[in-house]
Design goal:
Elements: E1 5-13, H1 21-39, E2 47-51, H2 53-62, H3 64-76, E3 79-81, E4 83-84, H4 96-114, E5 120-122, H5 132-138, E6 143-147, H6 148-153, E7 165-169, E8 172-179, H7 181-186, H8 192-205, E9 209-216, H9 226-232, H10 235-245, E10 250-252, H11 255-261, E11 266-267, H12 276-281, H13 285-298, H14 304-307, H15 319-322, H16 324-345, H17 350-363, H18 380-400, E12 408-413, E13 422-427, E14 430-435, E15 441-447, E16 452-453, H19 466-471, E17 509-513, H20 519-523, E18 539-545, E19 548-559, E20 562-573, E21 578-586, E22 594-603, E23 612-615, E24 621-624, E25 629-641, E26 646-669, E27 672-688, E28 695-705, H21 707-712, H22 715-723
Parallel strand pairs: 1-2, 1-9, 1-10, 2-3, 4-5, 5-6, 6-8, 7-11
Antiparallel strand pairs: 7-8, 12-13, 13-14, 14-15, 15-16, 17-22, 18-19, 19-20, 20-21, 21-28, 22-27, 23-24, 23-25, 25-26, 26-27, 26-28
């Protein structure tokens, strides 16, 4: 009798919170539906299927018949539904209470809708830390899948990875399967017979083994070029035919059946990590390039197979360092989680708290918090969606805590967890977060009526893959190439569009430029900075009145070596959606003009669309929001997004010159390299001279008008928001 082997095929289907409805539908038509259609034809094949909560909820609404088909396969035993974190949060990024809550609530949803018995879970992005074991076990999960890379980092050799292991934390046990990296690259890119041959070799050498393939379902149709390969040219049908033809020794089985049939190989404690590629993406750009160069130098060395097991990449949590914008989202989510826990302890309205919890969970969806060949840090609509749900959770908590209809509050605390104090101004219309220690900038501005953060910006920074952009597009692989090997430009000239920022693109960034600095130089971040006010500490104090609060920030610095003091005040009034911004410059020379600019970035306002445009108070339109403007002697400018239903109107009490330009990044996605609009930069600038006392001042206003959006809301929603 031939030696047998058990093959566990586990698909992970996922679409993130905030992705476009058309993307969901296209992935359904290209991957999820055709896979199931082919699968139906091969009754001897069994699989495990994990579908993330955002996608599952969308399917239930738009294609319930698909879920009914899954339920039938669950009942017959052909599909094991794998549970997980409801909204696909990276577990080390959320508190233990949210880990257990997200997993347990998704288990209940899957049981109710599909009749599934949930025993295993998908580990989002396979990001693992050993202390997660106890929380996962507390949520009722018995086993999960990591990559074989994790196990090799624990000291196990490849020959020891043809089964599953048990791990524990404080006596709580969890079984862990090693997913095969080799299989991830074979399926579906290599000929189907290659996979059978690979498995045959393992069966002969290691009989009664368990091999696990765990990877994205989107690679079967949604990834570039795979639909034609997998379905039109019949790769999947060929693969299932080969599995069926070899079923006497190659047994497709579920993870549940594998744990019932075989004991664990042994016990293991697994170091923190993720899949190999993710650990590389987590490193700083220069380290990534050094790593890639080292691999290319060593991969043909006969010693490489022995050496590479000892080489590891970076630590996943450091994405929050690489991209401070993601750390802001993380900090915001954590503060809401803490607030929610306190509200539960205080016995607030349980119905509203459950709604707030669901919004929080959605705002923890992982894709916006990291970046590589996948990941959505560079995708504004995904970052906007995170803030949309977090702000909605804040609004619901206000209702649960019975805050008054009109109020104003200010709080000083370390809101972004950098060991320095920030200031939060809040009324029923806006939430403003300011960082005195980082240039006195405004780094978050939440418009509560539409749950939108106007400062969900992203700076332009170097990426390791930019050297591929500079090298130009190329084809790689054979019939179809893995995403990791493709170099495709989604538009021409990207190599000419690489630009980098030396500071975060926020609002109230204070610059001194050469008097002849041009719009082009400033937009490219090539203008020489002549002052020391960008991202340097300001001192702050609060000035309170019953219905009006001002944050006053000041710094004694210099420009061109001239000692200067900048004092700026940001004032919020209860019931108002206007920020008043006042500047006072002291120590200015009376006989010399200095070029002073205040940078303001606004995010979530896309460019290139006729219904998103600059305008002035007289109604004159000045072009779409990606237009570079060089205006003079103006005192107002509006940025209107008719689709979002918002009009952001800036005005000043003295005439000014004004620049606008888009902030766009060259970034990587599944489809290739592309230019992505991140924010609109608006920069009023003056050539300032001191009066008799060496002073100069200006008062500006930023008014946020969402009447257009509110007029489109159902009456009950509008009243709920206003009550919040």
């Amino acid at each position: 009798m031939s030696n047998t082997i058990r093959l566990c095929l586990v698909l992970h289907n996922h679409q993130p919170i905030g992705n476009f409805d058309g993307v969901f539908e296209q992935a359904y038509q290209d991957s999820y539906l055709p896979f199931l259609d082919v699968f139906d034809c091969y009754p001897d094949v069994k699989i495990g299927l994990h579908t993330s909560g955002p996608l599952m909820e969308w399917l239930d609404e738009h294609h319930p018949e698909y879920l009914d088909r899954l339920a039938a396969h669950v009942k017959s035993g052909r599909i094991e539904i794998i549970g997980g974190v409801f909204y696909e949060a990276i577990l080390p990024m959320i508190p233990p209470r949210d880990r257990v809550g997200q997993i347990a609530s998704y288990t209940k949803w899957l049981t109710d809708r599909l009749g599934a018995k949930i025993q295993g879970m998908w580990m989002p992005e396979r990001v693992w830390e050993q202390q997660l074991t106890a929380d996962i076990a507390d949520a009722g999960i018995q086993y999960t899948i990591l990559d074989d890379f994790h196990f090799k980092n624990a000291g196990l050799a490849q020959d020891e990875l043809y089964g599953y292991y048990v791990t524990e934390e404080y006596g709580k046990l969890l079984s862990v399967f090693p997913g095969s990296e080799k299989m991830r690259y074979l399926l579906p890119f290599a000929p189907a017979q290659d996979t059978i041959n690979y498995l045959r070799g393992i069966a002969d050498q290691f009989p009664n083994s368990v091999i696990v393939f765990g990877d994205d379902g989107e690679k079967f149709g949604t990834w570039p070029d795979t639909k034609a390969h997998v379905y039109d040219r019949g790769w999947l049908a060929q693969f299932f035919e080969l599995l069926t033809a070899n079923k006497d020794w190659l047994i497709t089985t579920t993870l549940a059946e594998a744990t019932e049939a075989l004991p664990p190989v042994g016990k293991v404690y697994i170091p923190e990590g993720s899949y190999r590629e993710m650990t590389e993406w987590a490193m700083p750009a220069q380290q990534q390039m050094d790593y890639e160069d080292l691999v290319h130098e060593m991969e043909h060395d006969e010693r490489w197979d022995k050496i590479k097991r000892y080489i590891r990449g970076g630590y996943w949590r450091n994405f929050k360092v690489r991209y401070p914008e993601t750390d802001e989202m993380y900090s915001r989510a954590l503060s809401i989680s803490n607030r929610l826990a306190a509200a539960e302890a205080n016995g607030c309205d349980s119905r509203l708290l459950e709604l707030a919890k669901r919004e929080l969970y959605r705002g923890q969806c992982n894709c916006s918090y990291w970046h590589g060949a996948f990941g959505g840090t560079y995708l504004p609509h995904l970052r906007n969606a995170v803030y949309n749900h977090l702000i909605a959770a804040d609004n619901l908590l206000d209702q649960a805590e019975h805050k008054p209809a009109s109020f104003i509050e200010a709080e000083v605390a370390d809101f972004n967890l950098d060991a320095r104090q920030e200031v939060r101004l809040e009324d029923e219309k806006l939430i403003a977060l300011l960082a005195p220690a980082t240039g006195g900038t405004l780094y978050e501005l939440d418009v509560r009526s539409i749950c939108h953060n106007l400062l969900a910006t992203l700076s332009r920074r170097p990426e390791a893959y930019h050297r591929k952009v500079l090298a130009g597009p190329s084809a790689a692989g054979g019939e179809v190439a893995s995403i990791h090997d493709r170099v495709v430009f989604k538009q021409e000239g990207l190599d000419k569009m690489l630009q980098y920022d030396t500071y975060q693109r926020k609002t109230l960034v204070d610059h001194f430029f050469d008097n002849n600095a041009s719009l082009e130089q400033v937009a490219l971040n090539n203008a020489m900075e002549r002052g020391d006010f960008v991202e340097t500490p300001y001192e702050a104090k609060l000035r309170r009145n019953p219905d009006r609060i001002q944050v006053q920030m000041s710094r004694a610095g210099n420009a061109w070596g001239i000692p200067l003091t900048i004092t700026k005040g940001v004032t919020m009034t209860a019931g108002s959606s206007v920020l008043e911004i006042a500047y006072l410059l002291e120590g200015l020379p009376q006989d010399q003009a200095l070029h002073f600019a205040v940078e303001m970035n606004l995010a979530g306002l896309p460019s290139g669309a006729d219904d998103r445009y600059f305008h002035q108070a007289d109604g004159k339109k000045l072009g779409h929001l990606g237009t570079q403007l060089d205006l003079h002697e103006v005192q107002d400018l509006g940025l209107k997004d008719e689709w979002l239903g918002i009009d952001c109107r800036w005005s000043a009490d003295r005439p000014t010159s004004l620049w606008t330009f888009p902030i766009s990044t060259v970034s990587q996605s599944e489809g290739g390299f592309e230019m992505v609009h991140q924010s609109v930069c608006m920069m009023p600038h003056w050539w300032v001279q001191g009066d008799a006392e060496g002073r100069w001042s200006v008062v500006m206003q930023l008014e946020i008008d969402t009447a257009m959006a509110e007029s489109r809301m159902p009456k009950v929603v509008r009243e709920s928001v206003n009550a919040g």
